[in-house]
Amino acid sequence: MDIKRVLVADAVDAACVDLLENNGVQVDCKYKQTKEELIKNIKDYDALIVRSDTKVTEDVIKAGKNLKVIGRAGAGVDNIDINAATANKIIVLNTPGGNAISACELTCSLITSMARNVIPAAASLKAGRWDRKLYAGHELYGKTLGIVGLGRIGKEVALRMQSWGMKTIGFDPIVSAEEARSFNVESMELEKIWPLADYITVHTPLIPQTRNMINDKVFTACKKGVRIVNVARGGIIHEKDLLAALKDGRCGGAALDVFEQEPPKDPITLEIIQHPNVIATPHLGASTSEAQIRVAVEVSEQILALIGKNKQYTETPGIINRSVLGK
Ligand SMILES: NC(=O)c1ccc[n+]([C@@H]2O[C@H](COP(=O)([O-])OP(=O)(O)OC[C@H]3O[C@@H](n4cnc5c(N)ncnc54)[C@H](O)[C@@H]3O)[C@@H](O)[C@H]2O)c1
Fold this sequence. Notes:
Elements: E1 5-8, H1 14-22, E2 26-29, H2 35-41, E3 47-50, H3 58-63, E4 69-72, H4 82-87, E5 91-93, H5 100-115, H6 118-126, E6 144-148, H7 152-162, E7 167-171, H8 177-182, E8 186-187, H9 190-196, E9 199-202, H10 216-221, E10 226-230, H11 239-248, E11 251-256, H12 267-274, E12 278-280, H13 289-307
Parallel strand pairs: 1-2, 1-3, 3-4, 4-5, 6-7, 6-9, 7-8, 9-10, 10-11, 11-12
The structure holds nicotinamide-adenine-dinucleotide (NAD).
InterPro entries: D-isomer_2_OHA_DH_cat_dom, D-isomer_DH_CS1, D-isomer_DH_NAD-bd, NAD(P)-bd_dom_sf
GO molecular function, one term: phosphoglycerate dehydrogenase activity
Subunit structure: Homotetramer.
């Protein structure tokens, strides 16, 4: 594939640019462009690399007269109009797995922090109080963790939380019961998970089937006081229903890294963030130096594989719309 000029539109680790330039590709980094600027600039480039900030909408794609590839340094591609890209024969690829360990480790630290009230207790001590009784917690040992989505991150979370003595149960439409058992997760339908789980963590993409998956009905079906974690995508948990469940005690706590709108402005989301039983982080799942280098290198390696000149790079595991290649 003939890729000579690449536009990097979001701040991706320098390893991305270095690898492409070392292979003779011209790279321009233009961050925080307005939509109009991006539409004006995109026509000069054969490939576009983004993280989650740049919205690659249909009009951007149509303006990309020379565009052949859109690379997402990261996992979620909900900021890219994949249908429009496919219709215009533009490959969309991501870096599956590059940030899985980082997202998994954040999930596990949120679960353990929730169990022992680490965040509010530390804030209280910093504010000069000594509230030992207020912040008594509970053990995770012997508790049940329900994992919705047993892909890369869900599986890693299961393996780590098992070492805390948690029983792990889960559901994934494409992971068989046998495969789940191989990493000690008992597979069961969602309706069976709800009343059994002390903690529920979601690790699915945001797709029509998962949007608002955790809603009022689910909170009512859950164990009273269930704790819920979302380091996947905003919109999987129905925020209005979560707030209601936090208020009436059906949900005993939530740890959220992602929100329906980011940065959050909706009054309901802001009230959730302020709730005393909520830990909220600003989409930090992939924010580690290791993950950022890994996804930067992986996106460049795949573009080099598509160019096909350096025999060291041949794999394109992240292509999402393979039909564009006629495969
Ligand atoms: N917070 C962050 O910064 C951050 C970082 C990395 C990944 N993520 C997000 O985490 C999520 C999981 O990432 P991953 O790398 O594990 O993806 P993955 O593709 O490896 O796994 C996702 C799994 O969800 C399953 N799934 C799909 N629909 C389902 C449903 N209705 N019920 C149950 N399971 C369902 C799929 O079959 C798949 O196995 C994605 O949404 C990704 O965007 C967030």
